[in-house]
Amino acid sequence: MTSTVTRTLRLASAEGVNPRQRRAARRATVSAIGWQVLGIAVFLIAWELVARQVNYVAILPSPSAVVANFQASMFDDPGLRYLGVKNPGYLINIAYTVGISIGGWALGSAIGVLVGLSSARLQFMRNISEPLLFVFGAVPVLVLAPFFLVWFGNGVGNKFVLVTFYAFVTVAMVAQSAALAFPKVTEEYAAGLGISSAGRFWSVILPGTMPAVLSGLRLALSTSIAVTATVELLGSESGAGRLIALRATQANISAVLALAIAVGIVAILLDLLLRVVIRSALRWQ
Amino acid sequence: MTTMQYTQSSESIGSDLAFDISDLVVSFGVGNEVITPIKGLDLQVPRGQFLCILGPSGQGKSTLLRCMTGLQEPTSGSVKALGQEVEGPGHRLGMVFQQDAIPMWQRVRDNISFGPRMRGVPKSEWEPRVEHFIHAVGLSGRERAWPKQLSGGMRKRTAIAAVFANNPDILLMDEPFGSLDYFTRATLHNTLLALWEETQKTIVFVTHDVDEALKLADRIVIVSNGVIGADIAVDFERPRSDELRMNPAANEMRQVLLDQLESKVEI
Amino acid sequence: MSTATTVRRARSFDSKLRTKARTWPLFIGALIALVVWEIIAQTLGKASPQASQVLPSVTSIVTDGFTGLSNFFRGGFGVSSTANGSETSVLGAVLALLVNGFITVVRVIAGLVAGVVLGAVLGFLVSGVRPLRYSLTGVAELMRMLPTLAMAPLFTLWFGATTLASIVFIIFGVMFIIFVAVTNAVRNIPPEIIEYPRTLGISKFKLYTSVIFPAVLPEIRGPLMFGGLVAWTSALASELYGIQSGLGWMMGETLKFSLVGQMVIVAVIFSALALLTMRMLSWLINRATVWN
Predict the structure, then answer these.
(1) Are B150 and B104 in contact (CB under 8 A)?
(2) What is the model's pLDDT at position A6?
(3) What's the pLDDT at C51?
(4) CA-nearest residue of chain C to B120?
(5) Please, are residues A108 and A223 in contact by the beta-carbon 8 Å criterion?
(6) Phi and psi at residue B84, in whole multiples of 5°?
(7) Complex ipTM above 0.90?
């Protein structure tokens, strides 16, 4: 005689993930997201209240003032046009910054994954890549920005080269340490099945290190965008960073915040997109 | 070498039962459903007894043990330890975990003195006790080692010595030797029994291994379906290693226990 | 002889699976970089005289490039500034690097320490209360995704072109990284690690200081190193933009006049200091987690 209670018990004790646990986990995530949204809402309200108390837009503009600034200059801004910016709309400049970042990130990451993984298995690759990773893994890549500005001008080139290099270093380091830490047993098992060394690289190491590598890619993307915007502060023909620099000289804090937060929101949206792609790529986990 | 006697602390005298559990119910909400691993369980444990709680996984024995230490609050019913309601974890109810729960950043000696040191017990009081138990579990010479440098069996010895050095009234053990190999387990059984005989403390020991229970226990209870399914006194002479192999009564009891467990296992 | 063959054979499969870090490639790499730089510089230098400023030869970097840095010295210690008409000198260059290097190091250390302490304390306080942890992590995650580096001008507007602005900016960059790392690390402690001390009868305060704090140390190793890198990057960003002292300011000035020779020297010193900081952080964590 199996009562419903014992059946419940049996379900609970079964190893692995049963549908109920999965549902419970999802509910826990939902409540976590709820609290996060609440936290952000409280933060925004507190900011609005403090700003109204300060009541001085040149020190702390309220969130609504920031939004208003963004709305007003989304497509065009006569003030910036007067300062000599050819396309002064915020959106087009953010697209410029983000576009360069994504391009450099994609190229740098692709090279980084291949070099990082193979350097964990081929000693000569390790010897070649070690000097670069040793130095630039522990040194701010931003230190290269002034050089690239002198060498490649203030257009797309310098930023693209810098972001490519940055993404390469970050992703190669993550990929290399993931491949070095990957359990040898799995590879020995594959070798026992008669799979060749090259075959093991594609069939074992690459998928096995994928989770770590993909989280490295996420980190590299959001930082790439920040790096591009920062380099634009130093001198650029276009871009969100260039607008921030111009607006800062006029002490226009609303504009600085509007641009920075807008870039941040784009970074968050891209990160979410990347997460969705990653989740579908890692369904076996 | 003086022999040391560690008796129950005077405040605990007042009940001759180490544990008095009546009508214990524990339910959890998992999602929108409620599961009830303990459903109205009664159990009395006299002082000084070595009790083994036996049962297959998922039948509530770990939940029962967590209620006895105060790590789990009962939904209803009462758990009394030495005459007092258990209201939360504390130094009077020592616990040895299945996993390595000892702080890995404390050397062996510091780990064994961890409890009394952190509670602010005067050093003069705990120091001889710590030395004694280091010696008693066979860790002399390894006092300065980090736990990570020790084998799994040695880490378990450290965990056991640490709990004894904290001088609890009762010890609870949740499958402490579950992850160890056969020979390590056998030597640890002897160490534990020697400490039990020396200190005369009550021990409640959860296991799913019939032979382990037969070797250690005065009494075996089987938890099944959230209640006590069987309650068997084990009165073979100690030490038992040979006794268990030669005595036909022991074989018979093993068979009874295995039959009992088999009827409870649901696959 | 036979033992040698056995040893070699026994090693062979294992070495095919994983590589090892070697020291000599670092030296060879540095040497190759120098040689390649020199070849390009010489070739370009022959083509046009202007190129020797944009890509100066190694010899001119260590001579003219180095002494040129004395332009960044504002006088003192018995050496007068080039602004007062004195010649560029090795001593002036060394003093310029020492003074500005010291200023940057002070900013980095102050900001890093304050950021780590603030982030960690907040992380530990919040990790006990789940709703609070969730809500604050949401804000921190948001802050982490902002292009904080590009917000350097904001801090100059708020605090002026001062050391304080630089330090607050570094704190702003480091704090959220450490906060998120600590809350995650506390959440990932296995339950029995916290339950065991509770069964020993240890107080809540001691539980935090003697169990939870050491238990998270190995897990915040990576974030702490990353925080160190962010601290140096933030210092550079804040000094490049607005503040009139420090190694970053020197770099910004050399950029303004495209003086690559001087830029190289400052960049090398800056990188060496950052590298040293990372090594020290790694050493500190190793010291604190010898037990691991």
Answers:
(1) no
(2) 31
(3) 74
(4) C202
(5) no
(6) -115, 145
(7) no
Give the tens place of pLDDT for each residue, C70-122.
888 877 776 777 776 677 788 888 889 999 999 999 999 999 999 999 999 99
- Candidates C192, C196, C206: best to mutate against B (most CBs of B within 10 A) is C196
Contact flag B118-C202 (C-beta cutoff 8 Å):
yes
Residues 6 or more apart from A185 whose CB is under 8 A from it?
A: none
Q: Which residue of B has its CA nearest to C208?
A: B118
| Interface residues of chain B, partner chain C, Cβ below 8 Å | 69-71, 88-95, 97-99, 101-107, 114-115, 118-119, 146-148, 162-163, 166
The pTM (predicted TM-score) of the whole model is 0.85
- Mutation to test the C interface, candidates B12, B105, B111, B163, most C Cβ within 10 Å: B105
Q: Which residues of C touch B95 (CB under 8 A)?
A: 195-196, 199
pLDDT computed for residue A226 by the predictor? 92
Does the distance separating the beta carbons of B91 and C292 come in below 8 Å? Answer: no
**What three-state secondary structure class fits B107?**
coil
pLDDT at A19 over 50: no
Pairing of strands B227-233, B33-46: unpaired
Rounded Cα–Cα distance for residues A197 and A182 (Å): 15
Radius of gyration, alpha carbons of chain B: 19
Provide CB contacts within 8 A for A23, sequence distance 6+: B31
Residue C251 to residue C255: CA distance in whole angstroms: 6
Distance between CA atoms of residues B57 and C182, nearest Å: 34
Nearest to C199 among B94, B98, B146 (CB): B94
Cβ contacts (< 8 Å) between B59 and chain A: which residues? Answer: 9, 13
pLDDT tens-digit readout, C213-250 = 999 999 999 899 999 999 999 999 999 887 889 999 99
Per-position DSSP letters for C94-149, written without gaps between them: HHHHHHHHHHHHHHHHHHHHHHHHHHHHHHHHHHTSHHHHHHHHHHHHHHHHS-GG
Please check whether residue A250 touches B, CB under 8 A: no
Report the SS3 class of residue B65: helix
Integer Cα distance of B117 and B165 in angstroms: 11
User: Measured in Å, how far apart are chain C's first and last C-alpha atoms?
Assistant: 40
Contact call for C18 and A119, based on CB within 8 A: no
pLDDT at C238: 92
Sequence length of chain C is 292
The answer to whether B71 contacts C195, with C-beta atoms less than 8 Å apart, is yes
pLDDT tens, B125-170?
999 999 999 999 999 999 999 999 999 999 999 999 999 999 999 9
B30 and A21 within 8 Å at the Cβ level: the answer is yes
pLDDT tens-digit readout, A100-147: 999 999 999 999 999 999 999 889 999 999 999 988 888 888 999 999
Contacting residues of C for B103, CB less than 8 Å apart: 193, 197, 210-211, 214-215
Give yes or no for a contact between B174 and B62, defined as CB atoms under 8 angstroms apart. yes
**Percent of chain A having pLDDT more than 90?**
48
Cis peptide before A183 (omega within 30 of 0): no
A10 touches chain B (CB under 8 A): yes
Are B30 and A13 an interchain contact pair (Cβ–Cβ within 8 Å)?
Answer: no
Per residue, the 3-state secondary structure of A118-166, as one string, reads HHCCCHHHHHHHHHHHHHHCCCCHHHHHHHHHHHHCCCHHHHHHHHHHH
